[in-house]
Design brief:
With 285 residues, the chain is an alpha/beta fold. 40% of the residues lie in helices and 15% in strands. The protein contains twelve helices and eleven strands. Strands 3-2-1-4-5-6-9 form a seven-stranded parallel β-sheet, with helices on both faces. α4 runs parallel beside α5 and α9 packs antiparallel against α10. The termini are far apart. The mean pLDDT is 93.
Length: 285
């Protein structure tokens, strides 16, 4: 009997794509999330939806039973990883999980402040096989976190200055994750996952303008204006500060590095931002 692959955050941008790819590949998948919900579209016989809540340790054992490989991601709302994420990793080891594929952050090895660094260190200390996917800024943030400002205000309102970002499509991240979860040779590896081009937000706005046939303006707000807008929109301060830190990284010129791991692992060019916008155009209509 095939052992299931556990995918945490299965309803999120990355998790949803991983579940889809694994299911299409014929693998047994345990799609785990805080709320049990069947995958979108037609239910798949090899996908089991199950509850997994980092705030509720009692959900760990049922989700982990019989699992040897798992995809782990940190919910953005969780800052105290020692309290909420570490116990899940410990439970995974106790349950017999052998390999964790963790969605991390590019440059994390030089930034000990971010939660991803602490999670990587705890996985290393656990002795489990691991693969770290150190990803750049998700393209899909533009159709989730920034959807309303683009759709309703025809603007991009982020404090990134003139800095460039090596955007990556979550579909490429999911494709690499699926490889790491199903093929040999990825244990003990840390992959830097970026797109194939580094763009500033003026260039991003230009691509949106062309695709949507209306002017999209990049406002270049200050950090204070950005934080004020986020607060007005109901975004928690903790999340707003994390976003501000990400865009500050771009403003300082630290987010534009291009890596070859995505292209090398997938055997093709990463998805371009232009193609992503075309694929998700309905989100901003």
């Amino acid at each position: 009997m095939q052992t299931p692959i556990l995918v945490t955050g299965a309803s999120g941008n990355v998790g949803r794509e991983i579940v889809k790819l694994l299911s299409e590949g014929g693998f047994a998948v345990r799609a785990a999330d805080r709320r049990v919900a069947q995958p979108e579209a037609e239910p798949m016989s090899n996908v089991e939806a199950i509850a997994f809540d980092f705030n509720k340790p009692e959900t760990f054992a049922p989700a982990l039973a019989g699992v040897e490989r798992m995809f782990l991601m940190r919910p953005p709302a969780i800052a105290n990883v020692r309290r909420f994420i570490f116990p899940a990793i410990d439970a995974a080891k106790q349950a017999g999980v052998q390999h964790i594929v963790f969605l991390s952050l590019i440059g994390v090895e030089k930034n000990r402040i971010v939660p991803h660094y602490k999670i990587e260190q705890h996985i290393l200390a656990s002795g489990l096989d691991y693969t770290f996917l150190r990803a750049s800024f998700f393209m899909q943030n533009l159709n989730t976190a920034h959807r309303r400002e683009i759709r309703e205000r025809s603007e991009i309102f982020v404090p990134a200055g003139k800095g460039k970002t090596s955007f990556i499509d979550v579909r490429d991240i999911a494709a690499v994750a699926a490889l790491a979860l199903t093929q040999a040779g990825h244990a003990g590896q840390a992959y830097d996952l970026t797109g194939g081009e580094a763009l500033d937000y003026d260039q991003v706005a230009q691509l949106f303008s062309q695709a949507l046939s209306r002017p999209i303006i990049y406002r270049r707000p200050s950090l204070l204006r950005f934080l004020h807008r986020q607060h007005e929109s109901g975004v928690p301060w903790s999340m707003a500060l994390v976003l501000a830190g990400i865009y500050t990284t771009a403003r300082l010129g630290l987010a534009g590095r291009l890596a070859e791991d995505t292209r090398r692992l997938l055997g093709r060019a990463p998805i371009r931002l232009k193609d992503y916008i075309d694929d998700y155009k309905a989100a901003w209509a």
